[in-house]
Amino acid sequence: MTKEKVLWKKENSAQQIFFVNLVGLGCMGFSHAYGTAVEKSEAIKTIRAAYDIGYDFFDTAECYLGTFADGTISNNEEIIDAFYFQIFPAKK
After folding, report:
1. Residues 54-87: pLDDT tens digits?
2. Are strands 88-91 and 57-60 parallel, antiparallel or unpaired?
3. Are 90 and 77 in contact (CB under 8 A)?
4. Domain chopping of the chain, boundaries
């Protein structure tokens, strides 16, 4: 996969430069908009498989909330946070 340079400015710090793949994995479907949320263990397996084949750019947002089959809340950010230091999360 081709990497692209991305400038990222964190609050109260200097700009940092990251190189991420041009194609990322959209994570909205793990918890939001497509019916019952994907079980956390299954979502983590999918992210791990994507990471293993070269994905390092994952698109998510705090507003991506859903409901598991048992009625508990599914939070997309919690799924992504398991990989936070290995990937480049595009949080909106």
Report:
1. 888 888 888 888 998 899 999 888 887 777 666 6
2. parallel
3. no
4. 23-91
